[in-house]
Amino acid sequence: MPARIRSLYCDTSVIGGYFDDEWMDATRELLRQAEAARFRLVTSVVTAREIINAPPDVRGKFADAFGEEERILDLSEEAEALAQAYVAAGVVTPKYVDDARHVAIATVEGIGIVVSWNFRHLANLRREAGFNGVNLLRGWGTVRIVSPLELIHDDNEDETEDL
To answer: Considering the entire predicted model, what is its pTM?
Structure first.
């Protein structure tokens, strides 16, 4: 039986990172590895809504990366309620509720990894602990929130090279 490909939830910053000088290399490697079936990338209607006002090249990359409808997840009532619980617990402020929605959708859909370049509101230990605290109190599983850099290294690399 073939191994199941792990799904990763990508927020809007990952798509923008494709064209950002600082994040370009890691973002493109993540997408290359997804094309090689190492990962299955998914996102949501929240990202689709956020990307509407992005530059044309970013909108085009979003369409290329997430053109299949089943890879764009809906914002269910459960996910919205969880996002509001994150806000109520002070994990993020109401101004950044869409960041909470990204995590909530991934949580409700059972996707254990959220990928983001948003270090201020998502990909940091304090926020991850806050999201997971609310998840556990409400009976949900935990999620990891990581940057593409934490995912792109080949697990089969010979680690003795660095010794």
So the answer is: 0.90
